[in-house]
Design brief:
Length: 230
Amino acid sequence: MSSLHLEVCADADAMALRAAQFVATTARAVLDHREPFTFAVSGGRTPWAMFAQLRTVDFPWSLTHIYQVDERVAPDGDPDRNLTHLRDSVPHEAHVHAMPVTDDDLTAAAHRYAAELPDRFDLIHLGLGPDGHTASLVPNDPVLLVTDSDVAVTHAYHGHHRMTLTFPVLDRAHQVLWLVGGADKVDALARLLARDTTIPGARVDGPEQTVVADRSAAWGRSSGEGVGGE
């Protein structure tokens, strides 16, 4: 049985701080028993604010391996690349594993990246689009049906093909941290919490999932509310 726990923060700044606290606590708990701490990070604006908060505390960057949940197929340094912002957001001590989206053979590159992944991530960060997508698992894309590969390449979405982790990887993670902010996410968040599997996000079935949202996305839900599911 999986669990889905909701925490609501006052605004985007409070959400970033809470997310940073969650990541730091999770990392310390993992590193009490073994190393490294393996962390997969999605794109979007919310993780960069989270990382800014993490850089203000004593965080074990040198023992942290950061992987990409998804990435646009675009040249190195392109502002549309998640990696561009990720490298700007974390100190050099962190071990960043970049998705090889500049390779000529993207299918082979996806298989190679899959071979680099840990058996189970300690923590995966996910966002949620207004259309209910998460990672680059977007509505109606054939990648939603991929179960025999941990990494796959999508059709074009908003102008870019993308490389993405697939559902089997997300479901194996020890913990998933959702960050959901903005009034345009109200419907998608409600459907996620209701486990409405007509949206891709609600098909993530990891055993321990925490949703940190701001009030505009949560539409006034109270902090600390838990939502269970099977």
